[in-house]
Specification:
about 575 residues; binds beta-L-fucopyranose
Length: about 575
């Protein structure tokens, strides 16, 4: 009996060839793998800003401002589930400090509002709706708080820990805790020194499986922009030593691409809004992203080794507006059509190197996550030949690395057989959890995936091939991509041709273009161009991260022929770009 037991492992080894490839030094936790498999989640920005039209509230908003008229979290969950999302993350507390649940350590919450006579609780309603629709539930809780009187003192860290305990302790499992990097001034003008180790410990003790998002993780990282675009090269590993969320984070292009051989497994999450802003506003009902823009985002996030967190902000009723839900249905239908038929499902796969039958190339076609194709340890540049039963036409190649063993491939190429010759049609870098390569439409009977660089023997678990007839490969377009650049000392004057009633104004920086942005401003008006009167001073919320046009409503209508916008602060210092200044 003893002998047989000893022999068994040996027999297993000789029958199946070498064992499982050794993992890389840095690999994901099981919870991180499950998180990555969710692929698309819905972000929900909701709070006082929904009612004020601001992107960043300043914390002085009256609690009664939050008063949804037909609140329905089940409608959000139903919309998310129908769109194929796997989870919802809600702004439980944004920078204005208002809590969407009765947070016992705050006096600026739903409990102080007249909504549902102060008995309402958005986190309770949403967590229950998520459960009903089979979705996971996550929370965004901003450390920056422009309302809390303790902000800017050590006591605030304790208040924030209690806030986390309340939001994470009372509503069941939380799959992701979103920590925003913004760290501005509190109500008394002071900034806070955040106790990150304490915040992390608190989250871990209450929700051990929750992925913590920030610029530098520890669970997952910001992708470095709010446009829905992960790096074409995208490592899930990141160097974190010496960095912190917010101002102390690595440069945005590093966040976008990660670090090869980075110290920790911190994959990218791409957060982007379906509308120009993060919060709902009436004026943007006609500016919901087009199907083509959403498909571009899909390919540049999910298709580039990132999760997609698509923001769909509810309106003042507390419902997802029809303009957004219709677009989401179109998006789902398009994805279903594009990915309906895997043209590689019945192809013959032949690998240039073999690691025994257990790791055969056909594992790439079996639809099982944990069964993969692997080659011998010393083999770094294997080739996989894919032969179809007959000629096929396609334009997408989808590859997946088996990330529980780490991210290994650093470059690969795709060749197609054309008149008896192999012709290279794509040369790319990383693969990661999922990579979708957009290639020109090709008709052929065979193609070849050539791994051209890897840090350890490549291990892939999936190959699929598709023909996408919907996405047109648009360039990212914006109406505000051109403009002029001015020294920060120069004001902008707008002449409306005659005295008009003005209810607000729009400043548009040069989107993805030259020049910096105005972050703080002074606005004045004049009827004759000589005598000027002050209208307001303010700050453009979130404009550095998301340089979209800023519409600023005025509290009281003014009559003026001229408007003058003077920069008070620009980022970077010294100059700013302007694509438009308009009266609303
Ligand atoms: C940013 C915030 O400042 C924005 O308002 C928004 O919540 C976005 C998702 O994160 O850092």
């Amino acid at each position: 009996m003893k002998n047989i037991l000893i022999l068994l492992p040996l027999l297993a080894l000789s029958a199946c060839g070498p064992g499982q490839p050794a993992p890389m030094d840095v690999i994901p936790t099981q919870a991180q793998v499950r998180w990555q498999q969710m692929e698309t989640n819905m972000f929900v920005h909701f709070g006082p800003n929904t009612f004020s039209g601001k992107e960043w509230g300043d914390g002085t908003e009256a609690e009664d401002m939050f008063n949804p008229t037909a609140m329905d979290c089940r409608q959000w969950a139903a919309t998310a589930a129908a769109a194929g999302f796997k989870g919802i993350i809600i702004t439980a507390k944004h920078h204005d400090g208002f809590c969407l649940w009765p947070n016992p350590v705050s006096t600026h919450t739903v409990a102080q509002s007249k909504w549902m006579d102060g008995k309402g609780d958005v986190l309770k309603a949403l967590s229950e709706a998520c459960k009903e629709y089979g979705l996971k539930f996550g929370v965004y809780i901003s450390p920056w708080d422009r309302n809390d009187p303790h902000y800017g003192s050590p006591e605030y860290n304790d208040v924030f820990v209690k806030t986390l305990q309340s939001a994470l302790g009372d509503y069941g499992p939380v799959f992701e805790q979103w920590f925003d990097g913004a760290n501005g001034e509190g109500p008394n003008g002071k900034r806070q020194e955040y106790d990150w180790p304490l915040f992390h410990k608190t989250v871990r003790s209450l929700q051990p499986d929750a992925q913590m998002f920030s610029d530098v993780g520890p669970g997952c990282r910001w992708v470095g922009n709010e446009e829905g675009c992960a790096g074409r090269t995208n490592w899930s590993t990141l160097n974190v030593e010496g960095f912190s969320p917010g101002a102390g984070s690595p440069p945005v292009d590093t966040l976008n691409r990660g670090n090869r051989h980075g110290q920790a497994w911190i994959p990218a999450e791409t957060d982007v809004s379906i509308r120009p802003g993060w919060f709902w506003r009436e004026s943007e009902n006609g500016r919901v992203k087009s199907l083509q823009q959403l498909l571009r985002i899909y390919y540049e996030s999910i298709g580039r080794n990132s999760l997609l967190l698509l923001n769909v902000p509810p309106d003042t009723r507390g419902r997802i507006h029809e303009a957004d839900s219709v677009r989401l249905r179109e998006f789902r239908a398009a994805l279903d059509e594009i990915f309906a038929k895997d043209l590689a499902a019945d192809a013959l796969l032949e690998a240039s190197a073999k690691r025994g039958n257990r790791y055969k190339a056909a594992n790439l076609q079996d639809g099982k996550y944990d069964s993969y194709w692997a080659v011998p340890d010393e083999e770094r540049t294997p080739t996989l030949t894919v032969t179809f039963p007959e000629e096929r036409t396609f334009n997408r190649v989808l590859l997946q690395e088996y990330i529980p063993l780490g991210q290994r491939v650093s470059s690969f190429a795709i060749d197609v057989l054309s008149e008896g010759q192999w012709k290279e049609i794509a040369a790319e870098t990383t693969i990661g959890y999922k990579r979708i390569v957009l290639i020109p439409e090709t008709t052929t009977q065979a193609l070849r995936i050539r791994i051209t660089g890897a840090d350890a023997c490549p291990v892939l678990n999936n190959l699929e091939i598709y023909q996408d007839r919907i996405y047109k490969d648009i360039a990212t377009a914006s109406e505000y991509q051109t403009g002029t650049v001015h020294p920060a000392t120069e004001a902008q004057t707008l002449d409306l041709g005659g005295v008009k009633d003005i209810r607000g104004f729009r400043y548009a920086p040069i989107y993805r273009g030259e020049g910096g942005v105005i972050t703080r401003y002074r606005l004045e008006g004049s009827r004759d161009g000589r005598r000027w009167f002050p209208i307001r001073e303010g700050m453009f919320g979130n404009i550095v991260n998301n340089p979209i046009p800023q519409d600023v409503p005025l509290r009281d209508e003014v009559q003026a022929r001229y408007l003058r916008l003077t920069p008070v602060e620009t980022v970077p210092e010294g100059s700013y770009g302007i694509a438009a200044l308009e009266a609303l």
